[in-house]
Amino acid sequence: MKAIILTGGKQYQVSVGDEIYVEKLDAEEGKEVVFDNVLMVDDKVGTPYVNGAKVTAKVLKQGKQKKILVYKYRPKKKYRRKQGHRQPYTKLTITNIEK
What we know:
The chain is an all-beta fold and 99 residues long. The chain has one domain (2-98). It is 0% helix and 64% strand. It has strands at 2-7, 10-15, 19-23, 32-35, 38-41, 44-45, 54-64, 68-74, 79-85, 88-98. The model has no long low-confidence stretch (mean pLDDT 96).
């Protein structure tokens, strides 16, 4: 069974047992998270969401991605800016999909 869920402004295609990385959720490690914003389950497409459909996931880990460097400059103007960024994420494993 496959489903498409919406979280953090992004869509993810999931099935039972998948491990996915999503934008940081406010949940502790080991807790369960329920997604009600299900756009599609198997062949049933919602308008915009499928009524009564839920996807349950377990939080495996909270973390940050690798650091990326943002560097800005203007040639011949002595303008240089260097900044680092680490995006927070939540690692989930999908445990159940209900129609």
